């Protein structure tokens, strides 16, 4: 939610900042801006809309839209765009700067509300991610001191507040520290000051911020991909830490200005992970990466003997007495991650015979939750930075729970604050709509549930070994589904104009339906909902008419007949119907209009792959509508504010 970057070094900062912002555009894209410290002071350039409009504003050249271009034309347009970004160096000159891509909270998306914001004289500039909760109070006070505000943002108060303290001692470090003491809420901040043209100051509380340590140059960024091109050595700033970056070194401080000595961490990521690699969009690339992501997540946790999986083990922790004697599993997360939790509920109940509560983190945090001593508390978060999930984690810890986190992001806040971490080795997920992170979250949950069943004696040894073997085959089955892409693409081209899409299913499939419906609404803006199939006739069927597509997930043979009846009921009311199933006996031949076959697998594991056709369907509906699935309107990848 908002991306910030900063640079200090020998090179021209402008193209570096813009390129870094491009890699963070998934965090927000309603406006962008930079502030560069040149010979004549701070130069600020801002523009409403995507980063390309900022480039246009700086260079005065139109950036060609790559929509509806052939692959070749697209590559040409991309190369031209890169040249135009380089050209920005001719217009905005300086070796130090900060940049921002915005997801609006306070004030509409506009040039004026875009960051950076400055003090009245334009000598201090600030970029900010987060929300300053007491901004109105500070703003009133500053206005009473005669400060005139230009924007509607909460961030502008930070620039004026720093200026207020700067006037006391003419010391920018002192001024930032004093201002931070007055701020309530969350922030990741980048600050430059005309009178200190050798440094960028950065600080964080409840929003992610990393410092990239380069060779004769240093960086700040909200996320690793932004700076991976320049360095793999990073400091993950801790809560309330402040960093001062010079070209040749970085100093870290605590909130009281005391120096902290810490070595940077090395980032192992593959650089190509942050590129599209010839795919039209990151979302499509990430859907295709699922077989590998699933293998990478599963393999290190399978104990193999003579080429056969014989056990599950997590290096991160032992399945001790706590697992054996647990009374409940409590899962808390947001959005897609919470839907992974819903599937996880069926898995834990099925394999470990343990009651499970799944809660939206945004509800959990305000409900004065009841946690018991023998609960196992799990949070799930791709980014590891979701504000509600983090708060839920902290509340659970305060209640005495030991928190297990399933996350995709090494070094994230969730990974640092949880007691035990299980990484989904999905690699960086750039598209806003989660795909590979979701299926790898499911893989982790299944591993936990099955192992817990073994530890508690609720799964017989033979069944345990069979499930392990079946799990091992899941990535290959996922691969066969993504290879079936043209069939789903064609289906999307026939259905993308439907007014309503309902996903239905029973048991595991009812949980999976929620994620399928979310994916579609996120990227195609089509009205889609999920219903437990048995609930249809208790109300939702009133919505069904000939503008409706009903998609049934059917992976439980014992319930095929029930699903077939649901299909006939909605067909009788004019709906088009699709069944996604592993059945090959023809159970839906005489009822569904279309059937998409997924490879046969253990019924209870099918959820990991049955979602993939729905991901592809969502993707192709968006493309058919001329939308950019990587950057759906109003959304941001990492929701670091409440
Ligand atoms: O990073 P997290 O997994 O904590 O994010 C949670 C949700 O914000 C996220 O899953 C959101 O629903 C995605 N846009 C789903 O595609």
TrEMBL record:
Protein known as: Glutamine--fructose-6-phosphate aminotransferase [isomerizing]
A biological process from GO: protein N-linked glycosylation
PROSITE patterns hit by this protein: GATASE_TYPE_2 (PS51278), SIS (PS51464)
Localization terms from the record: Cytoplasm
Main location: cytoplasm
Domain SIS: 319-458, 487-632
EC number(s) stated in the UniProt entry for this protein: 2.6.1.16
Protein's organism: Treponema berlinense
GO terms for MF: carbohydrate derivative binding; glutamine-fructose-6-phosphate transaminase (isomerizing) activity
Name of the encoding gene: glmS
Root EC class: transferase
Record text on subunit structure and interactions: Homodimer.
Catalyzed reaction equations: D-fructose 6-phosphate + L-glutamine = D-glucosamine 6-phosphate + L-glutamate
Source domain of life: Bacteria
């Amino acid at each position: 939610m908002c991306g910030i970057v900063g640079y200090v070094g020998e090179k021209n900062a402008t193209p570096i900042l813009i390129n870094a912002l491009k890699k963070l555009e998934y965090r927000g894209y309603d406006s962008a801006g930079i502030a560069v410290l040149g010979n004549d002071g701070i130069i600020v350039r801002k523009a409403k809309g995507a980063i390309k409009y900022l480039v246009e504003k700086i260079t005065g050249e139109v950036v060609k839209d790559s929509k509806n271009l052939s692959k070749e034309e697209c590559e040409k347009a991309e190369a031209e765009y890169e040249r135009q970004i380089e050209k920005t160096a001719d217009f905005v000159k300086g070796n130090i700067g900060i940049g921002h891509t915005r997801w609006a909270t306070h004030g509409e998306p506009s040039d004026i509300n875009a960051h950076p914001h400055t003090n009245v004289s334009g000598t201090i500039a600030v970029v900010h991610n987060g929300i300053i909760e007491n901004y109105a109070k500070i703003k009133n006070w500053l206005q009473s001191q005669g400060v005139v505000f230009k924007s509607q943002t909460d961030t502008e108060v930070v620039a004026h507040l720093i200026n207020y303290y700067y006037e006391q001692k003419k010391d920018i470090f002192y001024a930032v520290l004093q201002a931070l003491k007055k701020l309530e809420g969350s922030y990741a901040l980048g600050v430059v000051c005309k009178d200190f043209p050798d440094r960028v100051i950065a600080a964080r509380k409840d929003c992610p911020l990393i410092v990239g340590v380069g060779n004769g140059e240093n960086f700040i960024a909200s996320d690793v991909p932004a700076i991976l091109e320049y360095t793999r050595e990073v400091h993950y700033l801790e809560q309330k830490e402040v960093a001062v970056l010079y070209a040749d070194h970085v100093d870290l401080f605590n909130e009281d200005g005391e120096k902290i000595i810490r070595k940077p961490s090395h980032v192992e990521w593959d650089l190509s992970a942050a590129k599209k690699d010839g795919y039209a969009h990151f979302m499509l690339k990430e859907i295709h990466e699922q077989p590998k992501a699933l293998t990478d997540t599963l393999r290190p946790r399978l104990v193999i003997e003579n080429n056969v999986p014989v056990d599950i083990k997590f290096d991160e922790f032992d399945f001790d007495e706590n697992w054996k004697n647990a009374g409940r599993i409590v899962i808390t997360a947001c959005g897609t991650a919470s839907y992974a939790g819903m599937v996880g509920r069926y898995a834990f109940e099925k394999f470990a015979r343990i009651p499970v509560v799944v809660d939206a983190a945004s509800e959990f945090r305000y409900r004065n939750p009841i946690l018991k001593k023998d609960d196992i508390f799990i949070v799930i978060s791709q980014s590891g930075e979701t504000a509600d999930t983090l708060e839920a984690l902290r509340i659970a810890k305060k209640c005495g729970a030991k928190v297990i986190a399933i996350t995709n992001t090494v070094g994230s806040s969730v990974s640092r604050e949880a007691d035990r971490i299980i990484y989904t080795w999905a690699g960086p997920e750039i598209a806003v709509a989660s795909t590979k992170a979701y299926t790898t979250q499911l893989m982790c949950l299944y591993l936990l549930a099955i192992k817990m069943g073994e530890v508690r004696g609720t799964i017989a040894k033979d069944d345990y070994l069979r499930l392990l073997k079946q799990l091992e085959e899941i990535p290959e089955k996922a691969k066969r589904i993504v290879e079936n892409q043209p069939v789903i693409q064609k289906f999307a081209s026939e259905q993308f104009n439907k007014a309503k899409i309902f996903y239905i299913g029973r048991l595991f499939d009812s949980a999976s339906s929620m994620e399928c419906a979310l994916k579609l609404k996120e990227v195609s803006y089509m009205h889609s909902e999920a219903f437990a199939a048995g609930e249809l006739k208790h109300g939702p069927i009133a919505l069904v008419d000939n503008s409706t597509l009903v998609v049934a997930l059917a992976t439980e043979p014992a319930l095929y007949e029930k699903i077939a009846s649901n299909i006939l009921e909605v067909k009788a009311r004019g709906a088009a119907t699709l069944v996604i199933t592993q059945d090959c006996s023809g159970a839906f031949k005489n009822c569904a209009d279309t059937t998409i076959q997924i490879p046969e697998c253990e019924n209870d594991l099918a959820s990991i792959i049955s979602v993939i056709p729905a991901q592809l369907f969502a993707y192709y509906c968006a493309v058919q509508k001329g939308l950019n699935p990587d950057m759906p309107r109003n959304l941001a990848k990492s929701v670091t504010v409440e």
